[in-house]
Amino acid sequence: MTFAVKCSLCEFFMMSITIALSKGRIFDDTAPLLKAAGIVPLDDPETSRKLILATNRDDVRLIIVRASDVPTYVQYGAADMGIAGKDVLLEHGGAGLYQPLDLNIARCRMMVAVRSDFDYESAVRRGARVRVATKYLQTAREHFAEKGMHVDLIKLYGSMELAPLVGLADAIVDLVSSGNTLKANNLKAVEEIMPISSRLIINQAALKLKRQAIQPMLEAFSAAITPLTPLSPYPLGAAT
Ligand code: PRT
Ligand code: MG
């Protein structure tokens, strides 16, 4: 009897899946992919205060976390899988994570931007030491090292666009999507570092132990991905 109970609990554990997601653009773009995999949350994360959301499937639940915390929950196995931006994954480093799919969602670009009146090209030519504010220290460090530029990096947690306006930094490294935030703050993009999209991430141990449950989801996600249309070049240098 005890053995039978233990076994069914154990089977349920082996088959049940926790998916870590962040609210906002990632959730919005993920909902159709989840639906394609037959998963529909029972509450709307935008209006619900619940951090654990049940779904129409007894064996699948969603946890709602900060975008930058998704890889940490998956790395330590508190979630079996999750969806995170490449920006976030580069900063995290990807330890313990399997990254099988680029979902082509929440697309944007990682860019260097400065005040419209700042002559970035001349500062680079002169070898001036440029002060750069960003939330993306790893990515920024690598980018400027590749260019052979000496920069002082200042870590911020948000609203990077403000930094050049109040003299905290000469430049920022931030994500740009429509360009409207740069425009509204009298900034211009001067370099594109890389295109960004969100990836499916899976805990490496969960992939082995729960393959039976994970594999069909992986296939459903994969089939539902919209093919990648290349982003058109972003206008650099011009005050946007
Ligand atoms: O907001 P919070 O501090 O909780 O975390 P977060 O900003 O990391 O989360 P969220 O939900 O805003 O973003 C989640 C993921 O969406 C990011 O990790 C990116 O992979 C992706 N993404 C896609 C973006 C953007 N586009 C984007 N435009 N993330 C942020 N932005 C911001 C950008 O930082 C800038 O402030 O939007 C502003 C620029 O937008 P435009 O349209 O004015 O150019
Ligand atoms: Mg945000």
TrEMBL record:
Superkingdom of this protein's organism: Bacteria
Heme listed as a keyword: no
Keyword vocabulary terms for this entry: Amino-acid biosynthesis, ATP-binding, Cytoplasm, Glycosyltransferase, Histidine biosynthesis, Nucleotide-binding, Transferase
E.C. designation(s): 2.4.2.17
One GO biological process term: L-histidine biosynthetic process
Segments forming domain ATP phosphoribosyltransferase catalytic: 66-221
SUPFAM superfamilies in alphabetical order: Periplasmic binding protein-like II
Molecular functions per Gene Ontology: ATP binding; ATP phosphoribosyltransferase activity
Any Pfam family matching the protein: HisG
Pathway named in the protein's UniProt entry: Amino-acid biosynthesis; L-histidine biosynthesis; L-histidine from 5-phospho-alpha-D-ribose 1-diphosphate: step 1/9
The protein's enzyme class: transferase
Record's subcellular location: Cytoplasm
PANTHER family (UniProt xref): ATP PHOSPHORIBOSYLTRANSFERASE, ATP PHOSPHORIBOSYLTRANSFERASE ATP-PRTASE
Record note on domains: Lacks the C-terminal regulatory region which is replaced by HisZ.
Free-text function comment from the UniProt entry: Catalyzes the condensation of ATP and 5-phosphoribose 1-diphosphate to form N'-(5'-phosphoribosyl)-ATP (PR-ATP). Has a crucial role in the pathway because the rate of histidine biosynthesis seems to be controlled primarily by regulation of HisG enzymatic activity.
Subunit structure: Heteromultimer composed of HisG and HisZ subunits.
Family membership noted in the UniProt record: Belongs to the ATP phosphoribosyltransferase family. Short subfamily.
The protein, known as: ATP phosphoribosyltransferase
Organism for this UniProt entry: Nitrosospira multiformis
